[in-house]
Every structure is written in structure tokens, then in C-alpha cells.
Amino acid sequence: MLLAILLPFLSFIVRGKILTGIVCLILQITLIGWLPAAIWAVMSLNNSRADRRNERLIRAINASKR
């Protein structure tokens, strides 16, 4: 989470989203763009975590039906 706030572009690159990281870096280069880039990175990280959690829940539900 700290990485997403301090270096938003690096947060995307570490998660394997290279093109998104480059776009975020271009946005982050401007001082005004830093805040939107940080918000974008944090929201993307939270969405990614929620997606993984939902996938685990779906697998658990499907496994219990068998």
C-alpha cells in the first residue's frame, strides 16, 4: 500500500501491468498528476485484492457443492 502511495507507477509494474505503469509514470511526472496517480494505484491495488478474495470464495463454494 505504501508503494502505491509513494511510487504509484512502480506499484503497477511490480504487479505485472507494465503498460499501465508507464501511463501512470507519465501522469505522475507532473506535480498535479501525482495525487490522481496515487489514488489510481491504491484503487487498483484494492480491486486486485478484492478480485483474488472473490475467486477464493467462489472456489470454496464450488468445492463445497461437490
Automatic annotation (TrEMBL):
<keyword id="KW-0812">Transmembrane</keyword>
<protein>
    <submittedName>
        <fullName>YqaE/Pmp3 family membrane protein</fullName>
    </submittedName>
</protein>
<feature type="transmembrane region" description="Helical">
    <location>
        <begin position="26"/>
        <end position="46"/>
    </location>
</feature>
<dbReference type="GO" id="GO:0016020">
    <property type="term" value="C:membrane"/>
</dbReference>
<keyword id="KW-1133">Transmembrane helix</keyword>
<dbReference type="Pfam" id="PF01679">
    <property type="entry name" value="Pmp3"/>
</dbReference>
<comment type="similarity">
    <text>Belongs to the UPF0057 (PMP3) family.</text>
</comment>
<dbReference type="InterPro" id="IPR000612">
    <property type="entry name" value="PMP3"/>
</dbReference>
<keyword id="KW-0472">Membrane</keyword>
